[in-house]
## 1
Amino acid sequence: MSDKFIGFHRLIEACDEAGCPACRCLDADTHRYLTAFLYEHVTDPVSRSRLRASWGLCNWHAWMLRETADPAFGSAILCEDLLRVVGQRLERAASRAATRPATLLGRLRARLGRARAPAIARIYRRRILCPACSELAHAEERYLQTALHFVDDPQFEQAYEASHGLCVPHALAALELAAGDAAGRRLLARTLPKWAELRRDLAGFVRKHDHRNREPFTEAEASAYLRAIEALHGQAGLFANDLRRQAPSERRASPSPPSE
């Protein structure tokens, strides 16, 4: 990685945009990937098999297909195939369940409210990553490794100084990749002042809501809450929500949060 390459220059360009530079790069990469997928891989047997194994794209990437140029035809081909394959899987699963005799253990689990999830549901939860997410995971690591490797490069340093800096999830991921190396600490040291400046804008926005205040909001203060949401959580849609982290049975068994 001693030579500067396309990923480095994409990261530099992203520093000129609002928000986390890594998020911006990944968003652009995703659009490029999905456009290429619809135009070049819809009928490719290997790509089709990979998509069947992941039960299609994830929710985020499936809806992002609408943002590609002329998505209807390619999306229709993919969805027709996936609906056929998934329908067949569920039909076979339902047929096997109907002919399988109930066991004493199964009846006991059901009585206790701990019935085991159907096999098809467990297979679905163990499905491989969405192909777009898999590509994105590799790209994310490359961008963060690039930032760590070139953290002291004058060109990168100047661009990063003018940027909003990494979001919290990407800053933590960079520290993890750095594995205790000084590059991680230096990148964080250049990021923390940006979050401190954002906090000052947030504090100013809150303070000026006092009914006695006559001072107008600055542009930075007015947009601070949106910038803060991205700084804390990353770009919208880039990181998964927690809704599906647990199976329904696990959610039911989760302890209630402590009362304050």
Note: The CA atoms of residues 107 and 121 lie 19 Å apart.
## 2
Amino acid sequence: MPRVGVSLVGFVGLMLLSSLPSLAADPTPVPLAEKTYMRYCASCHGKDGTGNGPVARHMKPPPINLTLLSKNNGGQFPYDHVLSVIELRADVPAHGFQDQPVWGDGLSILDQIGPMGAGSENRGKIEALTQYIKSIQQK
């Protein structure tokens, strides 16, 4: 009879462990990343990422179609490049400059002090935003 008790405890333990989020999974839920995209990117790049946002017609050059990044890069999503564009390390004048990004301080990592500094939360937003842009790529 004790074996049944041990097996039951083991089974319950496995069930509890399987209900925990995966450690390898993206810690930022897609809805939050999508909300970040809508707040900081959609006015130019459009809700669908194709470059047709309400501000796009006033921009020269026009915003790029974010859904074609993988296709235009040999089928590989240029994760590091997209990250550098959002962090304003790449030369994209329409995004502004590190000290004056067009989206304000909402994604700034300049104020980061140490591993858990003020910019740490924004670093997470930037990585989640990059993952979101990866998720809208055309197949």
Note: The beta strands are 96-97, 100-101.
## 3
Amino acid sequence: MVEIDTHKLAVAVAAALPHKADLRRALQGIGSAARHEWIKVAKRELNTTAQDYIRGIQDIETDGMRVTISLVGVLPNMVEQGMSAFDMRQTLLGPGSNAKTAKDGSRYNTVPFRHGTPGTGGRNVGRPMPRAIHNVAKALEPTMSRPGGLKAGPGGHTVAYGERIHPGMPMGRAAKKIMERREQPHHTASIYAGMIKQLKVYGPVKKGEGQHSYHTFRRISSRVTSGWQHPGISARLIHRKVQKYIARVQGQMIKAATRP
């Protein structure tokens, strides 16, 4: 867990403030500014991890002369503090995961990958797919989640499965070339093989309406020991930038808090 702590600042400025109420007001203002700046920098510097990271930035907490802002969650702290290369089976199949156990005792999990559309820039929705693949994907019969007019199945969930991209379906030459290649040596097929167009609707189904997203799914199993090696994550250390920002503006904020 990463924290931004204003305790040292509070001790330094307390003597200069005539009333405790001024100190509390100054610290609240500084804490709010720090959290706002943290979110702003995260939005500017992060892409696919931005939403999860920002959800990890907690509201400010006040305890006497101490105001803290915490960053919680495994992924946000991996992004913030960095992580060396690791076997993804440790997290996707280990304790606390939603992995299932097969009859032979092995563990397995289905991992979803979201793909952005051309022009999305990869922010929050995954790396953009090539335009040739998008032309194929957007023509797919959609997989509908909770479509209106269909009765809900077990657990209240409803899915009507549509088409998936496969090499044998009609597509242009550029798309075929992409489907034949492997993006990384450890890939066994194109990363776009099996892609679905998921359609979420919020009422009666109307053709062409609803929210579309594009996904592929891959199986990870403890029976297979190759692949699924994460290269590691470089530490972003965004909280240090926030601390420098606060050091730069805190004097003005204290003056504003004590102004009659």
Note: The chain has a mean pLDDT of 83.
## 4
Amino acid sequence: MDIDGNLLMASLLFGTVGMGMLMFGKKSGRMVPIAAGLALVVVPYFLSNLIALLLVGGALSAAPWIVRES
């Protein structure tokens, strides 16, 4: 498998954002950031297409602001 540098950088970016979101969700006790952060950490392992990774990563990054819990 040939890996692209852009795919590697996007995976690193979304993994870092996911780790921060996971830590924030755990500290605040909110389930949506925990789930989105865990998904952001895991998803780059399974997607090898840059466009798909950007779309899924963008949607997961925006999920805590779209899905508000009280």
Note: The mean pLDDT is 92.
